[in-house]
Every structure is written in structure tokens, then in C-alpha cells.
Amino acid sequence: MPVKVEKSEPLLITFRSHHNAYQEGSGAQIIRYPEVNTVWSKISQIVVGMVVIHYFLWFIPMFLSLYLLYSLGYPVVSFILLALYIPTYFNKDELKYGRPWEWIRQHSFWKYLQHYGQLEIVRECELDTDRKYIFGYHPHGILILSRISTYGGVFEKIFSGIEQRCLAATPMFLLPGSREICLWMGAVRADRSNAIRILQTDKLNLLLYPGGSDEIFLTDPSSTETTIIARKGFIRLALQQGVDLVPSFVFGEKHAYRKLDIPESIKSFFMKNLRTPLIIFWGRFFSWLPLSGKKIFLSVVHGKPIRVERMIPDPTDEEIDELYRQFYAEIRNLFNKYKGRYGYDENETLVIREAADKSSKGNVSNGVTNGHAKSLSKKAVLSSTSNGTNGVQNGFGH
């Protein structure tokens, strides 16, 4: 039986008129969403952005509403609402297939955020829907803004027929409000059994951020280095399940926020005494809303898939290392190929740090780790050279 070959024609979906990866006549298929510069549109983008980006705080108005109903003399209504909600909190949907709500996932209001972030998505080639895939995104960024590239029907335009779930860190499912938006958007908890369940389900594919929360603390808008964390857990998983890998790189996430330069002594105190990495950041209006401007825009590039020909239940270290090298060589290629097109300076370099061994054998996405300082090796084993060569030597409502 002949093997289907992915079409190599690039596809570009863009919400901006500048810094496009491809132009008309380049051979790429281009879908443009024209910029809307009316006052009402700009206000709508800010309002929608403010509400959605602060989903981690939705539990506050939820509890205040219950308290208000109770205080106004409607305790029965308050208790009924609470009784209806509690079973949904403990039903463990995050350990199954999520609770995707297609109406909200596909709703057009996501276009406000996509226009606000001046989003552009590139697909280097079409995927074979008869195969299964793990999409590995780097870098994570502070608030994983690249997730908006999968909402509002955009992912379905980019990868027609590819249904997916995204691995998200456990804390995202603990707070009311945050839990709901994550489940509605198709997220599940980041652990190995979940990932295997998704990949063994017909037609479901997996999205994950291998660098996980460690990459949050490496995000530095003032640096000419973009640093990511390389792990092998998802590489091992791809070999065991016989699924292809799609390298995906996110540009612009590091410029979305300002970050306070905290003295090392203070950061060490938090790590030593509270076991918590410390980061202080802010966006527009000193909120979590990303900064906006001609030089601040979000771009997501999906490279060509790396074929895994067969399932290997117990892959050797050599087999894991080989696929690992291929994946991160492609990540570097994407960075070097597109950085100039997306406004990065020529001297901008990619540094790939290898995670400690115990992280690579833990959670497949490694989105939750035991601490930033201990999860990284001390040297950048895959650091980029200044001329951009690819000499490789060796994760808003999730």
C-alpha cells in the first residue's frame, strides 16, 4: 500500500499586514484576515483580551457572586448553584479527554484576541490525516499566548481533519474558572497516562510544550538569546506509540511582557525557602494583557513532521537520542529560517538547554517540575552559534 506524502506547499494565516513570512507570488497559500482599525474594534479587542487573559482570576467573581446572592437574601439560590458546580469540579475530566465545548472553542470572539496579538500562523506542509502526531511547541513563554493560534477555527483551517488535545499543568485545573476554560478548550492534565490515552484514541493528536513552566523563568525580553529547555520524555512517548513529531516554534512571545530584573539573592531565597521560582512581569496597563505595537506580534510556525515509522515499546537510549537530535535540529532550523522574517535581529541566537535526566523520564510534557533551578543542566549543551548554524550535538486557557 503506497504511503501518503504530506504536501509541501506552505500555508499562511495572518491577522496583520506586516512582517509576513510569505508574500503573494511566493508559492504559499495565504489566508488574510484584514486588520480592523475602528475605535470600536480596538476597544473590543482590549475588553475581550482583559477578560480572557485573566482567566486565572475568574474564581474571584465566581465566589463574590455566591456571597452576594447569600447576602441579598437568596441563600437557597447560592447553595443550589454551589451544589450544581461541585460535582463538575470532582469529576476528573482533566484525567480523561477534557470537556471540549466546540461552541466556545470555535467562536468568532477569538478573532479579537488574534487581531490584538497580530497573530500569524505558518504550516510548512499539509499533514496526512491517516497518521497521528505530537506537536511540540517551543518556547512556552510567560503566559503561553500561542494557544490562541488553536482557537476560533484557525487550527482547523491550518490542519484540516486533525483533532487534538493539549497537555496543561496540574495547577490550571485546581482553581474554579481556570479549570473550566482549560477543559472547554480541550486541555487535559499533563501526565504520561493521559498522553498515552489521547494517542491511543482514534483521531486524537497531542499538543504539548516540552519546556513546560521552566521556560517561563527563562523568558527575557531584553536578551538577544531565546532559551528553551529540551526534554526526552515526549520523544520516548512518540517512539513507544509510533506517532510522528511536528516541531513548532513560537516567535514574539518573549516581547509580550516587561519583566522585573530581580536580584539573584532574592530569587535564591524564594527557591530555598518557598520552593517557588519568582517572576514579576506586566503587560499593557500593568495587567496581564500583552503589550501592543507594530513591533510586538505573535507568530507560530509548524515545521515538517518527523516520521516515526513504527512503534518501539522499549526504545533504546540510542533510538531516543537520534529522534531527539532530529527534533531539536528542526526546531533550530525553524528559528534560523524565520527569525529575520519576524523582526528578530540577525544576532539573535537560540540556546537549547538540556533538562536533567529525571525530568526527561517524568511527565511527558514536563510542564510541572520540582523546581526551575534543579530541572536544568548547568550547561547549554545545544547552544546556537552566532552565525545561526544548526550544529546540534546531542509545557490562556491551555
From TrEMBL:
GO terms for cellular component: endoplasmic reticulum membrane. Pathway: Lipid metabolism; Glycerolipid metabolism; triacylglycerol biosynthesis. One of its GO terms (molecular function) is diacylglycerol O-acyltransferase activity. Residues 387-398 have a biased composition (Polar residues). The chain crosses the membrane at residues 46-66, 72-90. Pfam families: DAGAT (PF03982). Keywords: Acyltransferase, Endoplasmic reticulum, Glycerol metabolism, Lipid biosynthesis, Lipid metabolism, Membrane, Transferase, Transmembrane, Transmembrane helix. It is found in: Endoplasmic reticulum membrane. The keyword Endoplasmic reticulum applies. GO terms for biological process: glycerol metabolic process; triglyceride biosynthetic process. It is a multi-pass membrane protein. Its EC number is 2.3.1.-. Belongs to the diacylglycerol acyltransferase family. PANTHER family: ACYLTRANSFERASE (PTHR12317:SF0), DIACYLGLYCEROL O-ACYLTRANSFERASE (PTHR12317). This is Acyltransferase.
